[in-house]
Design goal:
Largest sheet of chain B: 7 strands, mixed
Helix content of chain B: under 10%
Strand content of chain B: over 45%
Largest interface: A-B, 25 and 26 residues
Strand content of chain A: over 45%
Structural class of chain A: mainly beta
Radius of gyration of chain B: 13 Å
Largest sheet of chain A: 6 strands, mixed
Structural class of chain B: mainly beta
Shape of chain A: globular
Number of helices of chain A: 0
Oligomer: heterodimer
Number of strands of chain B: 11
Distance between the termini of chain A: 40 Å
Radius of gyration of chain A: 13 Å
Number of strands of chain A: 11
Helix content of chain A: under 10%
Shape of chain B: globular
Order of helices and strands of chain A: EEEEEEEEEEE
Order of helices and strands of chain B: EEEEEEEEEEE
Number of helices of chain B: 0
């Protein structure tokens, strides 16, 4: 059974702080790594899909890096805002036609 | 484009009953996946349908079943409901298997 681990489980930061969290996965089973943001009472929304070792993706103040050789991805949020409060999920696609395997998420609360 | 829709949004059932949940994917999306979210757990994969065929199935008992119609709409059925089936059930669609998934708002099922 593939295990995708996310840390920390939850995080409280002040508005304006920068923060980052980690997604770890088995490096031997890798096709793609997805990051999703899930705000309360909304649907999970895709942030990034990353496939290549060394990939870096950016969307506004949020960026992500990928290391497939050591099996981890980092998600960074620069200058956190209250609207960034959400659960951030990562998911591994082990191969092209296999289902996503989700981590349990990191719950971020940004205090104004 | 309209997003993924799920009906009903909320449902209350009693133990032993059965339930059918419906998912309409984004127009043109042929892959539909179902997930279960319970407190403290990540998204647990239930099944994936593509071109009316179940392509992958998660580790759930046979009480959980699904199907996909020719218009890509999908239903999942849970028979002989148990208290532990209380969860948020999410449906996600994508244009091709293994791609970024677009999630619906979910159906919140409560089993009493």
């Amino acid at each position: 059974i593939l295990n995708v681990e996310q840390s920390p489980q939850s995080l409280h930061v002040q508005e304006g702080d920068s923060t980052n969290f980690t997604c770890s996965f088995p490096s031997s089973n890798f096709y793609a790594l997805h990051w999703y943001r899930w705000e309360t009472a909304k649907s999970p929304e895709a942030l990034f899909v990353m496939t290549l070792n060394g990939d870096e993706k950016k969307k506004g103040r949020i960026s992500a890096t990928l290391n497939t050789k050591e099996g981890y991805s980092y998600l960074y949020i620069k200058g956190s805002q209250p609207e960034d409060s959400a659960t951030y999920l990562c998911a591994l696609t082990p191969s092209g036609n296999t289902p996503l395997v989700f981590g349990k998420g990191t719950r971020l609360s940004v205090i104004a | 484009k309209a997003g993924v829709t799920q009906t009903p949004r909320y449902l209350i059932k009693t133990r032993g009953q059965q339930v059918t949940l419906s998912c309409s994917p984004i127009s043109g999306h042929r892959s539909v996946s179902w997930y279960q979210q319970t407190p403290g757990q990540g998204l647990q994969f239930l099944f994936e349908y593509f071109s009316e065929t179940q392509r992958n199935k998660g580790n759930f008992p046979g009480r959980f079943s699904g199907r996909q119609f020719s218009n890509s709409r999908s239903e999942m059925n849970v028979s002989t409901l148990e208290l532990g089936d209380s969860a948020l059930y999410l449906c996600a669609s994508s244009p091709r298997r293994g791609n970024e998934q677009f999630f619906g708002p979910g159906t919140r099922l409560t089993v009493l």
